[in-house]
Design goal:
The chain has 486 residues and is of the alpha/beta class. Helix content is 47%, strand content 21%.
């Protein structure tokens, strides 16, 4: 907006929106020594105030009696895209956080608030706002600056926005989506790919510049150029589908062809360690320039520490809710994840799949070889399956020799393919130790949650459980798809 003026922090206007007056009073008291503060207790009143005034920062509760804090975020961004928004909520909703991040929120805080932390968040939001105003002012008064310098200033500013958005991301899948989208946009590429080999995680993420591409097409392109574009990924395991490949949708538009594309690839490194690679593909070799390689190295150096941090945080979260014997998720985390996926699929009108897995004749293994060997077989099973699932999937110990697998955004076809691969992986090779070689198999029950059916959690588990025991009755070493109408 051309009306933006450079100002001091003390001249910045802050709007606080919360339906609890006491919270408005507390935050106003904390902010008033430093900024100009306005408060209100409803979303509608906030929209009116935003329409009539220029606010530099808006602090809003996520859940208001009349409208959502996301609505306020969208409204002020529609009026002034450089205004900063801090969203506060009384409950930790990862999906809501992701929506807010994607739409430009500055910070996302959980009640009860620590006032010191809150003031730091506001100070950062104000600093970001003033940075934007100075950048806009510089661009408006840049008649004497060469086009190369203007372009460089634009790149610096856009990278700043990207880095801030990336640092707010809460999940690996979201970090990857943001990064791939930005890479396509900045580089003008038709496809971008990140491969990761870090802390026991080995997986690949890809996104076309527009439209949708089948994972098998992407997998084949990457296999053809394996050594150049993802040297840290095991080629044979990737070819067999044991290493997960996540392919996101690109922006709306025609899907680009990827049969004759040319890669520019750089390593992703943290403190001298290679943790993967970042590759962008162009539709012609003439796009492969030294300037693009140089920019990609800078881009990769910004992304790599965030990716490493994301996986480290994921490990910490998982360790807090893991099974002591196997190291995978425990029953409690399974239940929490199922609740979250049902809510997410319902809101997004989507699907996900649930697999229940049981070791066949496990009592016989325990009785014959003893409980220590039985535990070793359980650990063997978890290692094999863990190597085959995506980072966004949840593999959990359901109880005893029974396990569960939650597959977000996975329909029946995708779940059947994975179930078949798991069965083959377990039955094709016996458990081996210095003393024993024990062949074993598993049975699987599969259920698909479809938002149109509106299944409750207990009912979804029951459908998968019945399917599991159908597999047992029909000879074991197989999977059965549950019927939700029974």
């Amino acid at each position: 907006m051309d009306t933006h003026q450079i100002k001091k922090p003390s001249e910045c206007n802050i709007l606080v929106v919360d339906d609890e007056e006491i919270i408005c009073d507390v935050l106003e008291e904390a902010l008033e020594p430093f900024y100009k503060v306005t408060t209100c207790t409803s979303g509608r009143e906030a929209l009116t105030l935003i329409e009539q005034n220029e606010f530099d920062v808006v602090v809003t509760d996520l859940k208001l009696p009349d409208i959502s804090g996301i609505d306020i975020l969208n409204f002020i961004k529609g009026k002034d895209e450089y205004a900063e928004v801090i969203i506060i909520t009384g409950y930790a909703s990862l999906d809501s956080a992701t929506v807010a991040i994607n739409q430009g929120v500055n910070s996302y805080m959980i009640k009860p608030l620590d006032i010191t932390d809150f003031l730091i968040k506001v100070e950062k939001a104000v600093a970001s706002r003033l940075f934007h105003l100075k950048s806009l002012n510089l661009m408006r008064n840049s008649e004497g600056i060469s086009s190369d310098v203007k372009e460089h200033l634009f790149d610096l500013t856009s990278l700043y926005f990207f880095t801030r958005k990336l640092m707010l991301s809460l999940e690996i899948s979201e970090i990857m989506r943001i990064t791939l989208e930005e890479a396509n946009q900045k580089m003008g590429s038709v496809l971008s790919v990140i491969s990761v080999n870090l802390s026991g995680f080995m997986e690949v993420f890809a996104m076309p510049s527009s439209g949708e591409i089948e994972p098998r097409e992407v997998r084949q392109v990457l296999l053809n150029m394996h050594q150049k574009v993802m040297p840290t990924i095991d080629k044979e395991r990737f070819a067999e589908g044991e290493i997960p490949l996540v392919v996101y949708k690109g922006k709306q538009g025609e899907t680009p062809g990827i049969k004759s594309i040319h890669p520019v690839s750089v390593p992703m490194m943290v403190t001298g360690r290679t943790i993967g690679s970042l590759t962008v593909f162009f539709d012609g070799p003439e796009r492969n320039s030294s300037d693009q390689c140089q920019f990609l190295y800078v881009f990769s150096s910004m992304v790599s520490p965030v990716v490493e941090h994301g996986y480290t945080a994921l490990q910490v979260r998982r360790q807090a809710k893991t099974d002591s014997l196997t190291g995978i998720a425990n029953h409690r985390l399974f239940q929490e994840t199922l609740d979250r996926e049902i809510a997410r699929a319902t809101r997004k009108k989507g699907k996900f799949s649930l697999l229940l897995i049981d070791i066949d004749d496990f009592k016989s293994i325990n009785d014959t070889y003893g409980h220590q060997v039985g535990d070793a077989v359980i650990i063997d099973l978890t290692k094999r399956i863990s190597a085959m699932v995506r980072v966004c999937d949840l593999f959990a110990r359901y109880g005893g020799e029974e396990f569960s697998l939650v597959l977000p955004d996975t329909d029946l076809s995708g779940a059947e393919i994975l179930a078949s691969r798991i069965l083959t992986a377990i039955s094709s090779r016996p458990f081996s130790s210095p003393q024993y070689r024990i062949g074993y198999t598993i049975s699987i029950g599969l259920a698909v949650f479809d938002w149109e059916h509106g299944l409750k959690k207990d009912r979804l588990i029951e459908v998968a459980d019945r399917a599991l025991y159908t597999s047992k009755r029909n000879g074991k070493n197989r999977f059965t798809v549950g019927n939700i109408s029974v």
